Fold this protein.
Amino acid sequence: MSARWLVLVESNTTGSGRLFCARARELGLRPVVLARDPGRYPYLAIDRIDHRRTDTADPDAVLAACTALAGLVAGVTSSSEYSIATGGEVARRLGLPHPDPAAVRACRDKPTQRARLHEVGVPGARFAAARSRAEAVAAAEAIGYPVVVKPVAGSGSIATRRCSDPESVEAAAAAVLSADPATLGLPPQEAVLVEEYLAGPEFSVETFDDRAIGVTRKHLGPEPHFLETGHDFPARLDPAARAAIAGTAVGALRALGLGWGPAHVELRHTATGPRIVEVNPRLAGGMIPRMVQAATGIDLIRETVARAAGLPGRPPAPPPERAASIRFLVADAAGVLAEVRGVAEARQVPGVVEVGLTREPGQEVVPRGSFQDRLGYVIAAGDDGEAVARAAQTGLQALKARIVPNGAATGPEPAVSR
């Protein structure tokens, strides 16, 4: 019997990229990852995933790689935000299920996204794009301090800073515009986005097609960074606030021409109501899909794979009766990760359903105030949201990471525990 391929254009280095392949196999598909450098994804060898070296920046090269496969290509997609538009374009050419590639590309360009939302009155932040440090400072002066400076095409809070004066704006813009893209961990950036700082608690809405699956409460580390240190699902909100947040998110998707498959919409609940921070035309990161599954039974990764391959999905579950929380172990010292202790103890905490590490001993750690600082996580689930959040925090406190200076065989006692 010939293979039915699910083609994945690039991948996430941890978490959902590996799970996309696992769900494809569960659905009777054969995953194959097309990548410019397959060595970036160690799980390919561990899980024996087919892969092909391909220029994934070129849709024609991706299409050629798809047509060269022996068997039927059932779907083309990506778990990587940077390749979703390319996957959609190739799927469109092959007559396979796909999101609108043009809508995805427009959404991923942050100034274009903000402009389209502003045009139709979806509440968000005042903003301006800046191609130099001087332009960034001028934009901040016009918007009014504090502001947020971020890459125009990025994710995971990489190089995103809250700035309160011209000097910090200039430094934040320089860190993006002058950085080596490989060091930064982002594609080359021709500009930065300068945005009004929105005061208020932060949430995200996890959506599939044009419906809200639920609202997630986000926990952030100290400013000026915006590192997400944990999530609670569903967010503990009164019905009116929940409806307003979810409605604003769905309205943003419609305004951007999205609404096919998953999306992750970030908002802040300000004194004037919900305002959009960012719309991401993809599944949430930060293990949020796993948390949603623990609370609702909805496997958003499975649903995404099934949609891309034209397979029937499962009907949405009723409103969640359970809750789930995740807390992250975050590095706050530079060096080499020597070990993480306490995993077994964290797993024994009542309510904890999963403990995982996202970095291996021997890897270099350089805190940058982004998702790259995470070393591991604890997920808890149960019927009481407050008790679940406490369980996740208790599990996190059991984890102790030891980071030693570069070149040192041994080091001090745990430098990280939060």
